[in-house]
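Sequence design from tokenized structure. All designs in this work follow the same two-part layout: the structure record, then the generated sequence. An example of the structure record is given first.
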């Protein structure tokens, strides 16, 4: 039953946002319950905040490899091994299902779906190359696919190289993976290459068109050497396939 004082968020959180602004999707079963259980102040805004500031909401950050969460140190507490040890013992004897649950929490980080320059014009021009699907429709499709896969996603588009670099850097700590169609920057950008090279999470490069059937300058990508994989020439379904690929790597 809906708790009126603490309603669950409607998804996507901000349908009214213009293209280019971030759109965040969190599977409700993970994000809402986690924020709720943490005793954090509740509400959609807090879910976003919880995601951006995991230090403030430790219950949605991944547990250490042992599956034991660090206790918050209480400077007034007398030294005691009792507070932590029984819990540690209980966790070490946790059944596989409980451990799997701990692992599932780690997947609450969103996959960053990044689109580069001119992709905001999709559906408006050059339909013979890119089809007639708009970026808004692609993002909606990505959200639906992510929901089915149990993933959270955050979608951004920018015509500016530095902004794409900023989001990639953000994904380094906040993201579970990156799906990137860097547009023409795919063929030129060393900055995006360098940013992606710092990531320890799966990265899938997407191109809607088959760049190898096109001009020679589109045959080279600065990003491919630092991507986990590349999907190219399959149309907008490439974004869905990229999400599936990332899911398989988590
Ligand atoms: O095929 C792709 O997805 C590309 O990344 C798209 C980039 C292009 O520079 C890459 O070589 C391949 C460009 C996207 C531009 O999209 C437009 C859409 C409508 C009208 C004009 C441009």
């Amino acid at each position: 039953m809906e708790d009126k004082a603490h309603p669950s968020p409607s998804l996507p959180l901000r349908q009214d946002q213009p293209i280019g602004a971030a759109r965040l999707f969190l599977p409700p079963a993970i994000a809402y319950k986690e924020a709720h259980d943490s005793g954090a102040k509740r509400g959609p805004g807090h879910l976003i905040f919880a995601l951006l500031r995991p230090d403030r909401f430790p219950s949605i950050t991944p547990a250490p490899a042992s599956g034991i969460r660090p206790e918050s140190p209480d400077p007034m507490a007398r030294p005691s091994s009792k507070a932590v040890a029984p819990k540690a013992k209980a966790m070490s004897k946790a059944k596989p299902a409980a451990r799997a649950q701990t692992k599932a929490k780690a997947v609450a980080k969103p996959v960053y779906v990044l689109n580069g320059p001119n992709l905001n014009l999709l559906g408006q021009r050059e339909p013979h190359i890119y089809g007639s699907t708009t970026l808004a429709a692609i993002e909606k499709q990505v959200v639906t696919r992510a929901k089915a896969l149990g993933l959270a996603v955050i979608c951004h588009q920018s015509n500016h190289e530095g902004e794409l670099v900023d989001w990639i850097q953000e994904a380094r700590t906040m993201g579970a993976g990156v799906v990137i169609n860097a547009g023409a920057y795919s063929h030129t950008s060393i900055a995006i290459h360098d940013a992606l090279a710092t990531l320890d999470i799966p990265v899938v490069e997407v191109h809607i068109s088959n760049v190898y059937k096109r001009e020679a300058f589109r045959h080279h990508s600065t990003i491919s050497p630092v991507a986990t994989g590349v999907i190219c020439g399959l149309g907008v379904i490439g974004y869905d396939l990229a999400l599936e690929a990332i899911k398989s790597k988590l």
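The pocket of CA2 is lined by residues 118-119, 121-122, 124-126, 130, 181, 183-184, 186, 207-209, 211, 218 (CB under 6 Å). We note this feature because it recurs in several other targets discussed in the main text.
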